[in-house]
Amino acid sequence: MSTEPIQSYAYADASALRMSPSGRSLALETSGGATPGGEPERPRFFNGFLTAPTAAAAALLVVADVAATRYHRPGSAASLDPVITANGDRLRMESFSGCCGVHARLDILAPGLDGDDVGHGTTNVDVNVPLRRALAGLGGLDPLHLRVGPEGVEATTFEGRFVEKKVPLPQRWLRGFAESQVLAADFALRAEVPPAQAAAVVRSLPRLTGGSGARTTRWVVPAGGTLRPVSRPVPGAVCLPGAERLTVLTPVLRHATGVRLYAPETAGSAATAVAWEVGLPGMRLTLLLSPSASRGFSGEGGVLHDLATEPAARDAERVAELLAWEPTLDVAVLAAQAGLAPARVRAALTVLGTAGQIGYDLAEQAYFHRHLPWAAGDAEARNPRLRGARALVAEGAVRLDGALAWVGQDAHTHLVRVDDCGRASCTCLWWARYQGGRGPCKHVLAAGMVRGAGTGGAAAPTTETAPTTEATTAVTA
What is d(CA 87, CA 106) in angstroms, rounded to the nearest whole number? Predict the structure, then answer.
């Protein structure tokens, strides 16, 4: 039985694709959320037309399909309602897969919208099975009207039109939002290829099956506008981890204007995360894949060092006051406004990301603001490594000796070492298996907390990433 709290979505009506003598209308119903004017029951964000309706329908379907799919241990997955953010000049629709290893985001930019002004705020939108079927069958050149939010206040009072869903609050989504933006911020553009080339690669991938899940890892080398398959991770290669997960892009690639691949600039022989950005008329669809289908973003640990430092938590409160659903956040501008160094602003954004308030746009290489119904610290409260580190510090179980630290008590004591480059390592089982590839262990975190307290909040040591395998992902913190 799930121990997660229950989230209730209340919609004035079911979202639907409706036909009328004047054309087609896509009505996306909203539930709850936050806006500059408060927290209305059903906010309204946009009323107008989509300039590329068929492409938009295919992209919306990808976001909905990701939310309804488990790529690791496939099975029945609750179709959680996607999150939509209105940033004043664009709409962003996001979802995570049921296993939290795939993040999908559709950015409908100003050229893709023709209508009244876009509002500001974040909410959930109803994407039900009949709507998904209608989107899958949408074609033709007729215009498509888009309405995000109820037609009017009176729509909420019509008897029989009220729709309510009760689903477990997706805590893994919260940690996924936090970890994915930290991961993406370290990506670089690795390839830009024509849609036909990207489609050829996707067609060559194995399809997801109910029995096997996404287990295939492929490598491609960008070369002159092509992606050349290779059998192993040679220099310059880009990893396609859990490659079956990319096949969800098949319906949308026929509408693409270009495809970009983002990944870490340097990688060894281990599988790494990757993002595929599909350019569409007036839109961008980004699919971010975790390093393997068995590794959800919720367990990556990239936020832990910043969460472990007291200055970052205090700075986050100051930076949060400056956010207002901006489509792009300039770190330098925020630093000047908050009176903080850019590095401290980035750490503060990481902390705010644990409440789902920060995302990262690879195309613009910039953060953006959203607002979700979680409080900063919720992710921290559910992170066993961070809780364990704080307990070790509270028990006085950290003893510093220069670059060394003995962490723990009696037979459970481990040695944490920091080398001349500031990289930390530990003798515990977690470190032996992951070598920092999934963030620091609780012993490294605890040592960093104590060192920081003794140096006025000095930065925690970095962790060195080393190869990981799917076989070790069952280890817990």
Answer: 13
